[in-house]
Design a protein that fits this description.
Helix content: 25-40%
Strand content: 15-25%
Structural class: alpha+beta
Oligomer: single chain
Shape: elongated
Distance between the termini: 140 Å
Length: about 625
């Protein structure tokens, strides 16, 4: 018997299925509609921006770097335009084949290929990348004749940094080099990364680094429409870059050049300061180097030569080298004694040629001593015994307190490098310093005998030439101290406005005028009748100064004989000076490494500098070392 079907039940099931399907379709369409509204209405701006980003590319336009000039307008760092061979990868077929073909007509070295590959990894497909820089006119002409063979390859004009005076003032100006990961981190910390898109170079040392954000300028942009393959179709908009600001320095490039020549092939440093402002007139560290070597990436050969040179030309001795000040320390010791009431100008000692302390005898350089010595004679003839006794009477902490007040053992804050981390602090010895310096308890104790040699600028004393120059400039300015600085004003390229770097007095030490007169008179005497008299014979101006000689290693009681000592172990020669005495306009500190006596090596350089700066002339024979200028009676 056949099965009976219930039409009503079948109809209900059919209606249910139709209804379910209808609901499913409505839900699906509802989801699609909701997604459409989400994408086209709610997220409209976001996806429109994304679409524009895919259609439009922003190509950065690197700004013209600011120019650096000296106080007289002489250009020390500038930019010049040169031709560069560049490849746009998106417009080129086989990149490797293209480069190989280019090599047949243009000299492309392995280092050029290596640099190109690195830049290719960092660049976008539509950007042109340099494969060879600074093409000659002949190379440009040669490529032009074969231009049709190389789609996506073209010659462009780019700006390059140049230092017209080469090695002159290289430690002050610094140099630029290719941006590294370390540089990028520094830029990101300063939140300037957006302004460095497309930039290949950054300041590495000196003023180039310290004033990087002033010199760099503002990056411009070009909006370019691109297709799906990343090929540029047309330019839509161009925002021009703003050139970096220019630096106008306090530095005198001619004085700088003369001073560097005065050192010859000797190692050393000189810092000359304008006492009333702190402006640096000359900042010399020898040997020097040519910053042009670094502009487009220094070659391995040149880097090896600079880095492995025994005289270390890359070290800026003015701010990184720390040396015992020797007898140049004595005028400051004398002034400290007057200010603290430890001595009077006429108070004299009897100098037998030595000072006994405990079981140790501290000898004076003059055998038999200087006889009766007051403060004036102690400076003019550089009597060690006087300062052995004075140091013992003052005590190490009193000495440290006074010397710290004039900036010794502290960073000056000069505007060189990224921050003051590149400037050495030196060593200002004190009981607290020794506790922090040494780990073992027996090493941390300060012994009274250690104070004795501190008085003549030896012992633990170690200061940078910039600190010594700041100290003598403060003395020349009667106790008003300024921060040493190289930039006089910054020229804003947008407005043309000159933004001065205001002289910033750090402190007024409040020294008594009568005490200053004693020291000034004695320092004039140094160059009239004392240890600096030969170097300044016939000078047409009155100059205050002090010679100094600093031991490189301990003699351990033996007699020093220069001819018997290896050159790198010979004493350092120092000299400090300021002039004219009526109103000093220049103060300086000179150091000649392993130069022997201060009057023999350092004082003649100071004379040459002062003669040029004050009189506009060079003394005869100043460029050569005066072997006859021996220290009077070896009195240092």
């Amino acid at each position: 018997m056949g099965a009976f079907h219930n039409p009503e039940a079948d109809l209900d099931r059919f209606r249910f299925r139709i209804g379910f399907a209808a609901v499913a379709v409505l839900v699906a369409f509802g989801i699609l509609l909701g997604r459409f509204i989400w994408l086209q209405v709610i997220q409209h701006d976001f996806y429109q921006t994304r679409a524009e980003d895919n259609r439009i590319a922003l190509i950065p336009i690197v700004p013209n770097r600011g120019v650096i000039t000296d106080r007289n307008g002489v250009v020390l760092a500038r930019n010049y335009s040169a031709f560069t061979l560049e490849i746009t990868p998106s417009q080129t077929g086989n990149l490797e084949e293209t480069i190989n073909a280019l090599t047949e007509i243009i000299d492309i070295q392995p280092k050029d290929r290596k640099r190109f590959k690195r830049l290719l990894d960092e660049a976008k497909n539509f950007e042109s990348i340099p494969i060879r820089t600074r093409l000659s006119d002949e190379e440009v002409a040669k490529f032009a004749a074969h231009r049709y063979r190389f789609p996506g390859v073209e010659v462009k004009a780019r700006l390059f940094r140049q230092y017209p005076l080469g090695h002159v003032a290289s430690h002050a100006i610094g140099y630029i080099g290719r941006i590294t990961e370390r540089d990028l981190k520094w830029i990101e910390e300063a939140e300037r990364q957006a302004n460095y898109k497309g930039t290949d170079h950054v300041g590495k040392t000196g003023l180039e680094q310290h004033y990087e954000f002033e010199l760099h300028g503002e990056t411009g942009y070009e909006q370019v429409e691109i297709d799906a393959g990343g090929r540029a179709l047309r330019s839509l908009k161009r925002i021009p870059p703003v050139s970096g600001n220019n630096l106008h320095l306090t530095l005198d490039s001619k004085l700088q050049e003369i001073t560097e020549k005065a050192f010859g092939d000797r190692k050393g440093a000189l810092v000359a300061i304008e006492p009333s402002t702190g402006g640096i007139l000359a900042l010399v560290s020898t040997p020097t180097y040519d910053p042009n070597l670094f502009v487009d990436g220094i070659s391995p050969e040149n880097w090896k030569e600079l880095n492995e040179h025994p005289d270390k030309p890359m070290i800026n001795r003015t701010i990184n080298g720390a040396y015992p000040p020797g007898s140049t320390f004595k005028p400051f010791m004398a002034l400290a004694a007057l200010e603290m009431g430890k001595r009077t100008p006429n108070q004299a000692i009897s100098d037998p040629g030595y000072f006994n302390f405990g079981n140790h005898q501290f000898r004076d350089d003059k055998k038999g001593g200087h006889g009766s010595v007051d403060m004036y004679k102690s400076i003019v003839h550089s009597c060690d015994t006087y300062y052995y006794m004075l140091a013992n009477d003052m005590g190490i902490d009193n000495i440290a307190k006074f010397m710290g007040s004039i900036g010794l053992g502290q960073r000056t804050g000069i505007d060189l490098g990224k921050d003051d981390s590149g400037e050495s602090k030196g060593v200002l010895p004190s009981q607290e310093w020794k506790k922090q310096r040494f780990k073992k308890p027996e090493q941390q104790k300060w012994y009274a005998g250690e104070t004795i040699s501190i008085g003549i600028g030896q012992g633990y004393n170690a200061y940078t030439p910039i600190q010594l120059a700041q100290a003598v400039a403060t003395l020349a300015n009667n106790g008003v101290m300024f921060r040493p600085h190289l930039v006089r004003h910054i020229v804003d390229t947008k407005s043309g406005e000159q933004r001065p770097i205001e002289p910033r007095p750090l402190r007024d030490l409040g020294w008594k005028e009568k005490n200053l007169e004693v020291i000034h008179r004695a320092m004039i005497g140094v160059n009239k009748e004392g240890t600096g008299a030969r170097a300044f014979a016939g000078a047409q101006y009155t100059v205050g100064g002090k010679t100094g000689t600093a031991q490189v290693f301990s003699l351990k009681g033996a007699q020093y004989k220069e001819s018997a000592v290896k050159k790198n172990l010979r004493d350092h020669a120092l000299f400090i000076a300021y002039a004219p005495m009526e109103k000093p306009t220049i103060a300086l500190a000179v150091l000649v490494e392993n130069g022997g006596f201060g009057a023999q090596s350092a004082a003649p350089i100071a004379r040459m500098v002062l003669d040029y700066y004050l009189l506009g002339k060079l003394p005869a024979g100043a460029a050569t070392e005066d072997s006859a200028a021996k220290e009077d009676d070896n009195e240092e």
